[in-house]
Amino acid sequence: MAVVSADRKASRLTHLRTTIPDQEAINVAQAWCDSRIGTRRHARVLDAGSGLRSYVQFPVHIHVTGVDVSQDLLDRNPRLDDRIQADLQELEIAKRVYDCVVCWEVLEHLKEPAPVVAKLCEAVTDNGLLIIGSPNPHSIKGLITRFTPYAFHLWVYRRFFNPEATDEAGEGPYRTYMKSAGAASAVLRTAKGEGLTNVYMAWIESPMQVSFRERFHVTGRIWDLIRTLTQVFSVGRVRADATDYVSIFERPAASAMIGDPSANPMRSAQG
Predict the structure, then answer these.
(1) d(CA 132, CA 120)
(2) 117 lies in some domain
(3) Is residue 189 domain-resident?
(4) Burial of 268 by CB count in 10 Å (0-12 exposed, 13-18 middle, 19+ buried)?
(5) What is the phi/psi pair of residue 72, to 5°?
(6) Which 3 state secondary structure label does DSSP give 116?
(7) Which of 181, 239, 242, 246 is deepest in the core (most CB within 10 A)?
(8) How many domains does the chain have?
(9) DSSP assignment of 157-189, as one string?
(10) How far is CA 116 from CA 153, 182, 195, in A?
């Protein structure tokens, strides 16, 4: 038993050290959308928390509905076909009607993300996709964000990134709650409970944290030490480098063939 336990710990350590650039994860999400959604004639997309722009793009024949609390941001997003000003926590979303649901950098701003994730899962139709990109509450950055006041977040942005940062729509930083229910593991449990299959998962170190580290020379062996100590003292629960994640889920059709190699659009892309 001791050998098995050691192997599992080693595997977990290797996994925890694996992060990719954010643009790489966005490219993967785009490839899934191009392959699975872009070729459909009458597809419908829900961009939950659309803001000024979407992280993934769809052809003009795809009908995109955007939801955001800010009407101004909705009006300034040129890709939306329909615009719904609403709080996702209060909005009723039709079930099994969207070929793709995208929710990117939204969960961290919700006081109760779990019910929203469940609604987004339910909105996905057969052979449809759910794409969620979010900060990782179980990272050093996530924990600092959760347990510090908004005034501190605004000060950090103004001091190190944008001297003119405000809480106005389209500017940021926005008020952030960083609840554990928005973590990758919690989202995975909810999605599986709603009948979705996880087809892609990636950990990301945000460009903001990379820039911050490089500014203060927290790189190389120093950064390796911080990552290792964080993982050891948190017993693997907290990550220093994985500040964000991207997960893609699919709702298989009832007649879908399990194990079909053609079902993965990234197979050919990865060569």
Answers:
(1) 10
(2) yes
(3) yes
(4) exposed
(5) -60, -45
(6) helix
(7) 242
(8) 1
(9) IIIII-TT--SSTTT-PPP----GGGSHHHHHH
(10) 25, 10, 16
